[in-house]
Amino acid sequence: MTQKEKLHEKIKNCHDNVRFDDVVTWLLSWGFSKRAGKGSHTVFTHPGYNGKLTFQSVNGTAKSYQIKQALAAIKEIYHE
Q: Contacts from 26-30 at CB under 8 Å and sequence distance 24+?
């Protein structure tokens, strides 16, 4: 199992207390592009996705609803 697969399974199985840095690495590995947002927000886009994902770090972790949105986007793009 590759690092990408291990991280994907970890995030897919537990949406709570996922480190923000892990989310950034995870999304970049799926082909998302990262750009700065307003304030503490970070925006991710993907050429195969007609939306954007906005994340913010709260005490070093990502919010679970944002992870669920990212999982839905990955499923839409890659049929995972």
A: 26/70, 27/53, 27/70, 29/4, 30/4, 30/74, 30/77, 30/78
